[in-house]
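Work Package 3 (structural annotation) set out to generate three-dimensional models for the target panel prioritized at the project kickoff. During this period the team completed the workflow that converts sequence records into discrete structure tokens, so that structures can be stored uniformly alongside our sequence database. As a representative example, we reproduce one entry of 172 residues exactly as it appears in the project archive.
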Amino acid sequence: MKRNRALLPTAPIAGALLAALLALPPLPGQAAELSEPETSIQLGISDVPKTPNTQFALLTHRRPQARLPLGLDFVAASLGSIAGRSDSEPGSRERVNFVSLQLGYQLGRFSLASGLAAVSHTTVSLSSGYQFHSHLGIRLRRAAELGLGHLSNAGLRSPNRGESYIAIGFRF
């Protein structure tokens, strides 16, 4: 299996950062559940092969819901943008915007959500107008958050490279 050199430096750093975050003690007064609506803004990078310096932005609003199936805690709506792509096809727009609707769990300092997304146009990495969007949020301090996520069509249409991202932001 051929390894992509662009992903190699990021993976150990992200793994070490995640391990350090997991070792942090709970925040004072931190509830195990999302008790009121909150909004977060995150900025970061998308780590796609051969696309260095790809910028990623995400605005998400989470709303707690009491009667969701499977013990889910919240509904989230997100607006996102991916820019600075170096693998854009000739004649295509460089910036890809997307909107997603997700269901998720709030587990102490962690939020985990997954759902459906629609993109403004297709690219080599996002080959269909619909995508699945998964996001892990890790609260660092009362308002600061680290976000890890992935957009992909889950192999329903080829090619299926997807976009993975790491971002830092804040909740309010």
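The CA atoms of residues 109 and 139 lie 5 Å apart.
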